[in-house]
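Figure 6 in text form: structure in, sequence out.
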């Protein structure tokens, strides 16, 4: 049940279990007038949002690695309203060869290792949204 090509662009979905971190990312993105950003604090909440809304990109925390990878696989399989080919980035505490190969197989565009700087996530949001790097201004960058 993938979205039709040419469907209106949606928000970017951030899946981050640490609500404080997710909140900082969302509020910073809004202050910088970046595209709409929605926060889900669990993989299950993200799945519900993906079933109901169209998103233009995802940034997914791998804190819940198994469910997160399953959600990405389902997305790539066209099981949500969001297009199967939307850009995806992930955050992880570590990334071994096996995980990197799995992510490559799901066409993940970027891996951010924790702890990361909020600036890196903001730049990733700009990259996923197709904005040139220079168009994303970050204070202190």
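Output sequence:
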């Amino acid at each position: 049940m993938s979205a039709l090509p040419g469907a209106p662009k949606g928000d970017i979905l951030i899946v981050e279990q640490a609500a404080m971190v997710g909140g900082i990312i969302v509020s910073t993105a809004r202050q910088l007038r970046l595209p709409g950003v929605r926060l889900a604090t669990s993989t299950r909440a993200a799945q519900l949002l993906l079933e109901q809304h169209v998103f233009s990109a995802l940034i997914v925390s791998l804190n819940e690695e198994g469910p997160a990878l399953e959600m990405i696989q389902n997305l790539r399989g066209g099981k949500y309203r969001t297009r199967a080919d939307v850009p995806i980035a992930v955050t992880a505490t570590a990334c071994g060869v096996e995980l990197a190969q799995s992510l490559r197989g799901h066409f993940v565009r970027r891996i951010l290792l924790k702890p990361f700087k909020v600036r890196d996530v903001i730049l990733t949001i700009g990259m996923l949204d197709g904005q040139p790097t220079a168009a994303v201004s970050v204070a202190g960058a």
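Caption detail: Residues 19-31 form the longest helix (13 residues).
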